[in-house]
Amino acid sequence: MMKHLFNFIVFPGFLFTAAVGLVASWIDRKVTARVQWRVGPPWYQPLIDLVKLSIKEITVPRGAIKPVFFLAPLVGLSGVILASTFIWLPNIDLGATGFRGDIIVVLYLLTLPAIALILGASSSGNPLASVGLSREIKLVLAYELPFIIALTIPIIKSSGLLKLTDLVAYQTINGAFVSSISGVLAIIVAIFCMQAKLGLVPFDMGEAETEIMGGVLIEYSGMLLGIFKLTKTMMLVALPVFLSTVFWGGFSIWKYVVLLVIIVLMRNTNPRVRIDQAVRFFWGKMTAIAIIAAFLATLGM
Amino acid sequence: MSLKLKALTKSIWVYHLCVGGSCNNCDIEILDLLTPRYDVERFGIVLVGSVRHADAILVTGSLSLKAIDRVKRIYEQAPKPCVVIAIGACACGQGIFKNGPATPNPVDTLLPINIYIPGCPPKPEAMILGIVKLIKKLQGKK
User: Which residues in B lie closer than 8 A to residue A45 (C-beta atoms)?
Assistant: First the structure.
């Protein structure tokens, strides 16, 4: 019992993932600054942003539904804490057993931050927030389909393993899934879905600072905003580690760095797309590639 | 220096508020300040779109009668502690709109201004100097 609590709260759950995430988001901001020929913020900037947000006043709009407004950030944070614990454990703890079907549970938990954003925005009673939330809902509907199809490929190739520990063990014996054609196609689809799940450019139309003033987050202030930022920071760790666990034969630091570099480069070299372009992209090209990969996987390629 | 004060002065998110009745050149200079050439993200200064995320409100322009209610409401929406910075001659005094019929009130009759940055428009360097002075004042240094 104590061990599980330790796993959830300190290592590798909340505190550890948050610390890694703060470093990762600093790297993101620093690389972005260097790309734009700037110096960029000091290493403690994401942490000090969070500290500052936690000591600011929390303002609640008059039209807000208060219980949902206050609880939505916590829903997202608890989802990402649980998901990151389940994702880290098979990679670092050899005694971890997991349970049958935990890959499906992780899939649901990784959707919780988006659901929390939608709940929070819809309870804040701001018209710009509702524009952002409608975009966020469409984006969730768009990227979940190819993401789930892409995740079936490891399951097909390992003939029905639904446990993360089993998948890691299978890949250490038979080689990573990404060394086959279907695995390469699947991880490409999953990387694009990861960018949309993180809500980064080119798929940040739910927040769109220049257009709808922060969209879903517009009415949030103080600690509640800080919790949303922290959730996003932790997703920046949880998702790349999840992809490297499922497709790439387990976590290691260089794999995480490669995925982070892909995220940062994609964010810095693309403009924001419109919501219809994003939906067409995910339901068209990405779903087609994912289905082709699933066919190839059933043929054993 | 306490952690609280350090956090507040090292991560200033600014919200840009034009209170009407002026030529918008100060707004353009603020945009200049946020370009890579001056790189204020070094000091943690980021432009935000919503006043609920803001730590500092940059006020430009001379206060027009129509804007009074809106400006008051925007200031009340900002989470405290929050500083107000007046940028440009119009926001500091009333500039060339001093005798204008639509802009009879100076901004500082409505908002508690923490620092005045004069100029028509002030250069980005002057704004950085003003913000450095404001941070020193908040830290209690001379």
Answer: 10-11, 44
Phi and psi torsions of B66, nearest 5°: -65, -30
Contact A216, A117 (CB under 8 A): yes
Domain parsing of chain B, residue ranges: 3-139
Which residue among A39, A55, A220 places its CB closest to the CB of B7? A55
Asked if the Cβ–Cβ distance from A221 to B79 is below 8 Å, we say yes
Give residue-wise pLDDT tens across range A181-231: 888 999 999 999 999 998 888 888 877 777 777 778 888 888 899 999 999
Domain ranges in chain A?
11-298
Residues of B with CB below 8 A from A209's CB? Answer: 48-49
B103 touches B74 (CB < 8 A): no
ipTM for the predicted complex = 0.85
CATH top-level class for B3-139?
Answer: alpha beta
**Candidate from A29, A40, A221 with C-beta closest to B53:** A221
Q: Which of A52, A37, A43, A12 is nearest to A25 (CA)?
A: A43
Cis amide prior to A46 (ω within 30 degrees): no
Residue of A nearest to B78 (CA): A59
